[in-house]
Amino acid sequence: MKARLTPVALLSAVALLVVVPAAVAALTVTRAELSGGQLRVEGEGAVPNATITIDGVAMGTAGSDGRFRIERSGFSSSTCKITVADGTTTTQTTLSGCTPAGPSPPPPPPPPPPPSPTAASFQGLGQLPGGVQTYAFGVSGDGKVVVGMSVQATNALRAFRWTAATGLQDLGDLGGGSAEGHAANADGSIVVGRSWDNSPGLGYHGFRWTASAGMEALPTAEGRDVSADGSVVVGGAVWTQSGGLHAPLGPCCQSAEGVSPDGGTITGWTSTANGIRAFHWTAATGVRDLGTLGGSESAGEDASLNGAVVVGQARDKGEFWRAFRWTASTGMQDLGSLGGPMARAFAVSDNGSVIVGRALTTSSSASEAAFRWTTTKKMQNLKRELLDAGLTSVQNWTLTTASRASADGTVIVGFGLNPSRQWEAFRAVLPVA
Fold first, then answer.
1. Alpha-carbon distance 345 to 370, whole Å?
2. Model confidence at 21, in pLDDT bands (50, 70, 90)?
3. DSSP string over 28-41
4. What is the pLDDT of residue 217?
């Protein structure tokens, strides 16, 4: 027999049906595209007024009807897929107009190992035809060009330029039959020195040589040094390519001997009320007296790249000449000795950490030896360092003078007595320890 519902039961059933809510619409993305970094996403069915997130980042709000529209510039996706959520429902969709990124590129190869230190070497530069002696006075900043002087059997002097490819080359003269090469610019394309020309007075002038123009006279007595770009030449006076000959930089009797590679600092010696003094000059500061090592005189020879370091010679309290290194913060400092009482610094590397010159090894004036000074090892006998580097070819040489060093201080040129007891220019390569 079929059961019958009472009126109360029927009403309860009806009430139950009334309180059951309609099914909630699911979050749906109706449009998703990415073009040129511009993202556009549209959808419906979100919880009314809910925050819409894309890949976990809040980017918009749904309307009261559950619809939403999001636009965002500067968006990128490597997978071209995004996850959209309203805090209750999450859905994933694919972006139209988007190109998935390819596989990750392989990692770059490891950097090459640092170059091995410059190999040590030593060589004599030989003689010009008809020559009996050679002296190296200068080297290019890159260390590839050596300049100096050859003494001929006739006693004439010849300026030379040397490279590994050409050997010694005679640079000619200004008409007087003799010339000396003193310095070269950064790449050795410009050489300066002095040449006799039979003019009244001194009978010689400074010169500036290039391969294209040959040897050209300067209005200076000498070309003692040249800037890296060849535009500034010093030698007694100062000559610049833009302004010609410049008047003395300071007091009477001044002699400019060295110029920094950047051309902004000049050093040398000048006569002051206190005697002959080394000086440091820039256009901003003018002439600055560098003092002495306790004695009566000093003279500057060379300056580092920006002029922060000056080297030369100065008398100490005993009136012995000593090699010095000067900076604004330390003042003038004695570089030490090789055992004897005197030394002279001729040149400094661009960063001021390598200095070359000559020093006595005993009290005898005949005991001159080339030296290299570094901030780590201080003053060392150059021949001893070359022998320690395994260069037996220098064994029977007497290296008396290190005249110049390359910009990095690894190439050193100078002169000494070769195994035949003949004066000969040399070029040495020695890594900086």
1. 10
2. very low
3. EEEEEEEETTEEEE
4. 95
| Residue with the larger pLDDT of the pair 354 and 220 | 354
Ordered strands of the 411-417 beta sheet? 121-124, 423-429, 411-417, 398-405
**Per the structure block, which two tokens stand in for 301?**
């020879």
Task: Name residue 254's amino acid.
Answer: Q
Q: Answer yes or no: are the C-beta atoms of 180 and 174 closer than 8 Å.
A: no
Q: Are 132 and 138 in contact (CB under 8 A)?
A: no
> Which range has the worst mean pLDDT, 5-9, 28-32, 93-97, 118-122?
5-9
Other Cβ atoms within 10 Å of 330 Cβ, number: 9
Task: Please count the other Cβ atoms lying within 10 Å of the Cβ belonging to residue 248.
Answer: 15
Please give the pLDDT value at position 319: 97
How far does Cα 350 stand from its chain's mean position? Answer: 8
**Ramachandran region, residue 404 (left: φ > 0; alpha: ψ -120 to 50; beta: rest):** beta
Which range, of 179-183, 238-242, 400-404, averages the lowest pLDDT? 238-242
Looking at 179-257, list the stretches that DSSP marks H as alpha helix, in order from N- to C-terminal side. none
Q: How far, in Å, are 110, 118, 348, 354, 409 from residue 114 at the CA level?
A: 12, 12, 26, 22, 19
Q: Which pair of tokens denotes residue 44?
A: 């419906």
Neighbours of 389 (CB within 10 A): 17
Residues 385-398 have a mean pLDDT of 96
3-state secondary structure of 388: helix
The DSSP H or E segment spanning 18 is helix 7-19
Question: Looking at this protein, which amino acid is placed at residue 329?
Answer: S
Whether 172 and 179 have beta carbons less than 8 Å apart is answered as yes
Residues pairing with 416 in the sheet: 399, 424
Q: Are 414 and 401 in contact (CB under 8 A)?
A: yes
Phi, psi of 386 (to 5 degrees): -65, -40
Apex CA 365: angle with CA 360 and CA 371, to 5°?
Answer: 25
Rounded Cα gap, residues 96 and 368, in angstroms: 84
| Residue 207: partners with Cβ closer than 8 Å, 6 or more residues away | 159, 174, 179, 192, 193, 194, 195, 215, 216, 217, 218, 223
Return the residue matching tokens 């006693």: 155
Instruction: Taking residues 367-382, report their average pLDDT.
Output: 97
Beta carbons within 8 Å of 361's beta carbon, 6+ residues apart: 338, 339, 340, 367, 368, 369, 381
* Residue type present at position 298: S
CA distances from 412 to 98, 124, 141 (A): 63, 12, 11
B/e letters for 177-192, b = 16+ CB within 10 Å, e = fewer, are ebbbbbbbbbebbbbb
Residue 103: which pLDDT band, with cuts at 50, 70 and 90?
low
